[in-house]
Amino acid sequence: MPAPSNHELTGWDCRHYWHAFTQMAEYEPLIIREAHGCRLVDIEGREFIDGVASLWCNVHGHRHPKIDAAIRAQLDRIAHCTSLGASNDTAIELAKRLADLSPAGLEHVFFASDGAASVEVALKMAFQYWRQCSEPQPQKTKYAALASAYHGDTIGSVSVGGVARFHEMFEPLLFEVVRVPAPDLYRLPDGVDTATATEFYLSQAEALLAEHHDELAALVVEPLVQGAAGILVQPSGYLAGLRNLTRKYDVLLIADEVAVGFGRTGTLFACEQESVSPDFLCLGKGLTGGYLPMSATVAATHVFEAFLGRYDEMRTFFHGHTFGGNPLAAAAALATFDVFEEEQTLARLPEKVGCMAEHLERIAGLPHVGDVRQKGLMAGIELVADKALKLPFAWQERRGAIACRHAMEHGVWLRPLGDVIVVMPPLSVSLDELEQILRAAELGIRAATE
Fold first, then answer.
1. Which pLDDT belongs to residue 81?
2. Which of 34, 70, 217, 292 has a C-alpha 20 to 30 A away from that of 161?
3. Pairing of strands 369-375, 378-383
4. What is the pTM of this model?
5. In the 8-state DSSP scheme, what is residue 230?
6. Domain shared by 100 and 44, yes or no
């Protein structure tokens, strides 16, 4: 059977492939055929630097020889084995590796297929924990989460999410959540400045925990940075403060590091930067280097032990995913960790982080750039209609999308969050590539706003 033509692929793409978060009536096909390093190549042969790491998941670049080889070697052994009552040696090695690398006390790994599932697992584990722990508190059935949070698109993860434009359609399906005000250093309340922001936002969180702790199973948070909220960087000490408050009020802490883990903020896990050990660590995206779907919920020992007992006690966690612990994905993940060590990925980040900061400082001076936010090698550039008043553009004008479309003309693929231009390349990006990404972003912003 002959390979389809580019014209056929384009037609089939529009007719048969229903894309995520995409209005298909207006979709303009971009069909990627191959990739190498930090570069994507479409069916027309056009090359783009991958400025968003294939939606924040690609870590060491595309077609990394070590990860490729690990997957090929695993194919010669076994492609899949269920985790229901069985195991495989590759997934076992990965579980041990994650236990060794995770914050202290997190030693028990439950595998799933994507980040939303890892959060869903943590929510259900937390719910069941309070019925089976040494001092049961079955009234703890609710959750606290930050405003503007994003934790995935399953019903549970959407419930703890707080991005209205994504989730308001499904409100009748969602469970009630105690909503904690999210730190926003760009739009601080009157009387609050960056020096007092941590104390202010923690006081708000404490007031809610003090009022609701008897009914709260867990608080879920994206450590250090709220991604889909617009790359909102939390003030220093906020995460550690939340950990202290959850301990004080006997509420479990779920750290959703699906987006911020695996070096994105400058350390392997974001929690490390404030010496925080949550009760659950949710991982995805970069776990396999962006190669294969896999996620993990790493639980603390006291949580795991609450699920142990005789079969007839019904303490089992009755939850599972067909492809949880998939050996091919596990092989890719193990190779991803090996590359971190062998290529000293984290040690090489500061120079790249500094390069990004230098370019962002220049971009911040553009007339319609209201704010630039950076943590590690992730950044958000917020476009506004009025810089002095911090007034946004009308969302229907799609200024962010226009800016990203112009960036493609300069060889860079970016994807916005509304009118926030996200820059989040693979950690392996070169300084030259990083400079090209930020120059293209600047040119795109100028074209979209001048």
1. 95
2. 292
3. antiparallel
4. 0.97
5. T
6. no
